[in-house]
């Protein structure tokens, strides 16, 4: 009896051997134990766990050199797999990256880096698959809805053929299945707080096959959106109120700063006015902030400045006129120019300066002509005679 059993077992092993050896990735599987001569092959196939088990059973193989070789090969393999998975992830092939990492972890199950990488990519892969499925469902739902609409339009014109009716019936059946799947994805999107995606899925589901469940879910979404809008509106109002308060405080501070600055400038302007330094007084008054221009104190100083400038300009104009009549044209120009610096818009002063400059130009031209006469030529020296062409100037 034992012989019969033994022969049956041997026969079973013989029958299973082609199956085992024919499976991909199973060429290293032995019915017995690994042998020392299999070490190189195990390392080539990255079977590091079996290689270590083999060295632990054969003292001749359990050397520091062989153990170092196994560790180095294993470390290099981990780096290679990590780089390959990273490249696949960068190319958005998350499924390929997970498969590579899973296969490697069967050979080096103790690798922390590969396991952590797979744990990181796996959720993204699931999310990617879910997103792809959602996109396919949404695209298919739009197609079915268009087909149903087209069928109704054609049916209104003429009776549909048997083939069209059969196709329409098939589309209606698919619409029910799509509506159910879209409802599930809509619920998943709601659970993940993806309101826009949930709304899209549920609206398509409702168009394909309206159900109370979908109506309730959409009503919940609308209520949630309304609540969010109310919260956003309240937040906007609160933000505007805070901004208004902040702006009012800033304006109040600016006004206080302007008053302080104006007070300091008024003291400086009054001192310059008392010292008859009209240029400094004007420059100081011009620094007064626009918000304080109409203040009574500023207006009073401005009036005093205007009166002082008017008196100074008249004196300088009269002095320049006298200098011009005395043939001191250059000094007259200087005097009138000083008056112009106080009253740059005074056209009477500007006319005087322009005329005097023309006289100076003519005199300079006569001097140049005298210098150009030959040495032996009898010449008459031109004296800058009194300029009688303009005796009286228009008065402002």
The helix/strand series, from N terminus to C terminus, equals HHHHHHHHHHHHH
Round the mean pLDDT to the nearest integer and report it.
83
Quote the beta fraction.
Answer: under 5%
Q: Which stretches are low in confidence, meaning pLDDT under 50 for 5 or more residues running?
A: 1-8, 10-29, 377-391
Q: Tell me about the biggest sheet?
A: none
**Would you count the extended β strands for me?**
0
Structural class: mainly alpha
Overall form: elongated
Distance between the termini: 147 Å
What proportion of the residues is helical, as a percent range? over 70%
Q: How many helices?
A: 13
Nearest-angstrom radius of gyration?
Answer: 51 Å
Explain how this protein is built.
By secondary structure, this protein is mainly α. The chain has a domain at 294-396. The protein has 13 helices and no strands. It has helices at residues 2-22, 39-44, 48-57, 64-90, 94-107, 112-157, 162-191, 195-208, 212-274, 278-285, 296-325, 329-342, 347-371. α5 packs antiparallel against α6 (112-157) and α8 (195-208) runs antiparallel to α9. The longest helix has 63 residues, at 212-274. The model is unreliable at 1-8, 10-29 and 377-391 (pLDDT under 50).
Which descriptors would you attach to this protein?
396 residues; 13 helices; 78% helix; elongated; 0% strand; mainly alpha
